[in-house]
Design goal:
heterodimer; A: alpha+beta; Cytochrome Bc1 Complex, Chain A, domain 1; 2 domains; six-stranded mixed β-sheet; five-stranded mixed β-sheet; 11 strands; 45% helix; B: alpha+beta; outer membrane lipoprotein receptor (LolB), chain A; 3 domains; 21 helices; globular
Chain lengths: 440, 691
Amino acid sequence: MKSKCLLTLILFTFTSFVFSQTSKIEFEEYDLDNGLHVILHQDNSFPLVVVTITYHVGSKNEKPERTGFAHFFEHLMFGGSENIGSGEYSNIVDKAGGTLNANTTWDRTYFYEVLSSNQLELGLWLESERLLHLNVDSIGVATEQKVVTEEIKEREDNQPYMSFQREMSKRAYLVHPYKWTVLGKAEHIMAATEADYKEFYNNFYVPNNAVLTIVGDINFDNTKKLVEKYYADIPASKNEIYRPTQIEPIKYKEVRDTIFDNIQLPAIFQAYHTPKMGAEDYYAVDMLAKLLSGGESSRLYKTLVDKKQVAMQVASFPMPYEDAGLAYVLALPNMGVELIDLESAMDAEVEKVQTELITDGELLKLKNQYEVNHINDNSTLESRAYNLAINYTFYKDANLINTEIDKYLSVTKEDIMRVAKKYFRKDNRVVLYYLPKSQQ
Amino acid sequence: MKKHISIILLFTIILFTNSLFAQLDRSIQPKPGPAPEFKIGESKLFTLDNGLKVIVVENHKTPRVSYQLSVDVDPIMEKNAIGYVEMVGNLMKTGTTNKTKAEIDEAIDFIGSDLDTYQNGIYGLTLTKYRHEFLAIMSDVLLNPLYPEEEVEKSKKQQISNLISSKTNPKIIANRVGQKLRNGNHPFGEIITEATIENITRAHLVKYYNTYYKPNTSYLVIIGDISLKDAKKDAKKYFGSWEKGDVPAHEYQFPNKNIGTRVVFINKEDAVQSYINITYPVNLKTGDSDAIPANLANDILGSGAFSARLLSNLREDKGYTYGAFSRLSKSSNVGSFRAFAQVKSEVTEDAVNQFIIEMDRMKNELVDNETLDLFKTIHTGRFARSLESPQTLARFAFSTIKYELPSNYYQTYLEVLDAVTSEQIQTVSKKYIDTDQAIIIVVGDKATLLESLKKFSSTGEVEICDIYGNPVKEENTTAIPDGFTAESVIEKFIDAIGGKENIEKIQDVTIVASTKMNGMDIKQTIYKKAPNKYASITSMNGNVLMKQSYDGARGLMKGFQGEKEITGDELEALKVEAIVSPELKYEELGIKVSLEAIEKVNEKDAYKLKLVSQSGQKSYDYYDVNSGLKVQSKQTISNPKGDFTQTFNFSDYQEINGVKFPYVLRISGMQNLELKVDSININTDLSDDLF
């Protein structure tokens, strides 16, 4: 009882310390009638503005015979619209001296422009064009099909070890669409038809499935008027938006396999089934991963790389999935080290967390690291725009940008041991050995 | 009264906004408001008594501060121990006279800071409130590194593992070879190999550290939430005791440019993409009068903007690649030009061609005003956006001192940029964008590409190099005798192993072979039965691991994970495997065979046969020119995932029932796997149940 009080006290002083140092990120948010959620954050210290739009669609919303479509569609969004000529989209941003890009995950697709603040209206017009009436010609589609095929080769196939997500996902997920990767299959992309684009666009690229964030050197009144001007009359979709409902069953049997890759040095990839992001245990799992491999004093690094010298590299990280999580633990051996020895050294470290409480010093170290992360993560306009958008998209709580840190700071030593036991079980994981093809 | 007005005002506003919607003409691109002013923040400079130059940029937005230390010395030749200068940097935090590596790591991680040490530099980032703890460690690491023997050995082991893990990475290979060939005898041309790492000793590190790490040739850049006063106090406290000393200077001849265009090829058999890297040395440094127009010229050619010519041509127009770019790197030693892309194999030749066309266009054509203005805008935007980051200001301050730039160089940067003319772009392009003296490096599939690249070379020859850029000895290729075809090679082989008649007498065969893997005994038993049944059982220490079978129609794989049907390319391969002598049945199996060349296998001449299966899978078989026996087989799998080669070597042929079988099968790779045949039995009347 006594020690518990002490802990709370330490935590309390600690948290208050954090907030004495970090200023809260202020923002305003509201919905348009068509369901578009708008978040504004003002920072006039530098004359830039970041305009982002997040669509709540990713590879998990795809059909099994059209994997990779969400990412491919992201490429098409640069094609043009009713009022923007083919291939002109990025030229307009170039001509305004701005920059733009986009990216896709399993769960969402994110687009952004960074512009000088006098170009805010341009950014809003650009995003409204491709939300309201995208218009891609068949030549544009054919070219992007080729480009995406080369992207898949460059990112997954022609790079050592980089097929690991594909190999892991299809073994870890039996029913959930997470079983295919964001890049998907080139043949699915090549097989896509005009009907596919139309359907996808009409289903997912609608204001009631999107979050618009505007961050930087703005004033609220003017910005709200401009948002109204370009977005208010974009019709909402009446269709229900498809979200996969498959529930991945709990696993009680370890899956092991060997992948022969175009590599010279073998590797081990482990993935444990973990709670979805934002779930109660997610934060303790995240912390456990950091305990294992965050920094050179972390347990895996210190033991495997420094002391036993069985590994050249180690890493552990939970993947932020909206529906069902995976935490990766991976290691590359030093030359001549057998994978089996490396794996038992990795497992020994996990077992240690399951059987012994971490020390107070370790817990404090972890919390210090999260405190710094929290500050670093929100240090630029772009990162603030992103965090606000993502927190709303997945949790309907943009203010997590300020409060998520508390969830980490309230994790206890017991929580870490508990999640280690609950999720980091051998019968709850997939283990892949990556071996050189020449050993096949 | 007052109230009344505001209501009217509100009313008009509502009216106004409403009418806006009604009349919103979306076809009109919004015009920008008045351009905001981008101010270049201030930086301050002071020098400690020991000569350390300190640059401070205050930025109080977030409660953190970064420290970057750069040791600014001339490069040196590392000769047979290349890699040690980098290790001097990398290993600084692996132990000091006061602390072990574990203690340093713990202290840094505990306060959530980053501390990286690298070649001639240290970078760290910490919360302002922890800066004293942080600086105590940074200063200890900088002033008292110990280079413990065991850390040196550990690092060598890791670096060798790292080199091995990158051996199949085309980008790393192409860049490394480019660096070597471009820089020639200059220290920048020295590249790390496993052998040079082996030669590194602790003494190399200690000597370099003692000679070159001095405050009087170093810079410390402090950025963040700290006052100038505190920064000064800290610098004195933590770096004031660093003792100054004379640092040797070195001068090198600028690498010779090529005479003519070189084409260098590095083989990656059956690669699905080719990596193209066009490169040469460039004599250009920050502050040169050419620097700004040359940057702009390179932007037009190969920046990341979609309107840049390389990206617009190779990606947006042709769909050859995910990205094609060029980089012009300035340096006070040897700068470089690089143009690069990873392209679909089949289009390699045209991709190189398009690179050359775009590069030559920069020299031969005046850039039109619209393009010039567009790229000035892009460049201006990038410059302006970069000013948000305090790192940019620090870099400006650093360059101003190091390159002795006029104090208003960056203040006037955009004015100078804006004044650049098309003629200037052409002049600098002629100087710095040069296909006539370039080295064109291609990492790709030699078999299909080599011939097509010859036309780009001034000599008409393509130089073949290994992954470290060393010339691969031109094998004195023997010409294929006139009239000799793939069929002749196969005929000779059939005769050599015992003749068609003897082979056709074989109704079934049982081969038992064994090997050791990871310390365990692996046994493989293969059964084949005419006309086309096959089974293979793999066991480890007596336990069956896997069974593969093909009954003439269906392929099955049984293992721990249960049963799985074999389909697709794997099934195709199994069908061939199921035949006792597939060489006799190539036509029936739909396999196309062609005689490619005579190449050396284990230093002996061998005929190289290319086999293409019905589904397009390629493989190569090698038959000894003298004995006629098959000595090697290279299996190449090239589905999108594929792009790899596995090599089988056959030797120790022994005769059973008048037919010769290889008794040793060596599969090459990092760990050489050798399968030895224990027994071969023929015509034992195998039961169909086996399959």
